[in-house]
Write a structure and sequence with these properties.
It comes from Chryseobacterium paridis. This is N-acetyltransferase. The protein is an alpha+beta fold. It has a single domain, classed as 3-Layer(aba) Sandwich (Aminopeptidase), CATH 3.40.630. Helix content is 23%, strand content 30%. The chain has two helices and five strands, in the order ββββαβα. The protein has a five-stranded mixed β-sheet. The two termini are 20 Å apart.
Length: 105
């Protein structure tokens, strides 16, 4: 994560069902669904004003930390999150082994 995002707080916006960070009034976020033991990450997006800033990667990393800290298992259906985990395989530790594409990570 780029240093400029380290102190940006992650918000679990339950009304919108998304994890988000806000940067200068613009958002990077991940839509999620949550079960008792799992969090499904569905879609990652950043406002166009944040394109190329690293905000999307920052919201992913902060969300993965949140999932781990809350002892949940991850189902990374979002292609961006899936690619992020492939690039950072240490995060495979929080992916639910029952995830259908687990062996592709």
């Amino acid at each position: 994560m780029k240093p400029e995002f380290e102190n940006t707080p992650l918000v679990k916006n339950e009304s919108k069902k998304r994890f988000e960070i806000e940067v200068n009034g613009h958002f990077a976020f991940i839509d999620y669904r949550e079960g008792r033991d799992q969090i499904i990450l569905v879609h990652t997006e950043a406002n166009p004003e944040l394109a190329g800033t690293g905000a999307a990667a920052a919201v992913v990393e902060k969300t993965l930390h949140f999932i781990e800290e809350n002892a949940k298992k991850l189902l990374p259906y979002c292609p961006y999150v899936f690619a992020y985990i492939k690039k950072h395989p240490e995060w495979k530790r929080i992916v639910d082994e029952k995830f259908e594409r687990y062996d592709q990570l």
